[in-house]
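Attaching the record inline, Q. Sequence:
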Amino acid sequence: MVAKLLSLNNQNEYRENIRVAAQALLSGKIVAFPTETVYGLGVCADNDSAIDSLYRVKQRPRHKELSVMIASPEDVVKHVKHIPPIARRLISSFWPGPLTIIFDLPDNRTVGIRNSSHHVVRDLLNTAKISIVSTSANISGRPPATDAQQVIDNFSDKVDVVLDGGQTEAGNPSTVVKIVDNTFEIIRHGAIDEERINRCLNENWFSIRS
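Structure, as predicted:
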């Protein structure tokens, strides 16, 4: 079955299409949506079976973790109990926005968290009232989709709902940084460059690696 393509250009249909996509997430389905960078694929963060499906569709190795999308910066505490000072500063400067922050968790685990500035992502999260495990809309190793048709071309019947918000603006993925105590490391260069990150941090206080 080919993915259901839902246009977001018609304001009369916008809310209903967001509701349909939110219900799909709650039902364990994979939903594609525009962000301020590229298109993403997402599933309900509390549904292990849906997360397994996302890995298969993405063809992503299981040791490469997926990120978690949250509706607001305050929601980070739902997933991370200790927020280091450097992370608080990055959150204050760049969230909502195209920055994924990887936090250390107990038992040598990590979690990457992003608070997107795109209204479609926020509306989807707030309607579903969940966090979303997310990844860029592409087969691993290939360029990410920047419009809905590319999502369809990449995944066809492997994705359940595609929210068509037109061409994305940035075309680059989010920047990914990993927090370790009072240092950070750039894991993936993206929409926010290293210079902007450095400017927001006091280099006299923080040791910076990239």
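The helical segments are 11-26, 48-58, 85-94, 119-128, 148-155, 194-200. The longest strand covers residues 99-105.

More tomorrow.
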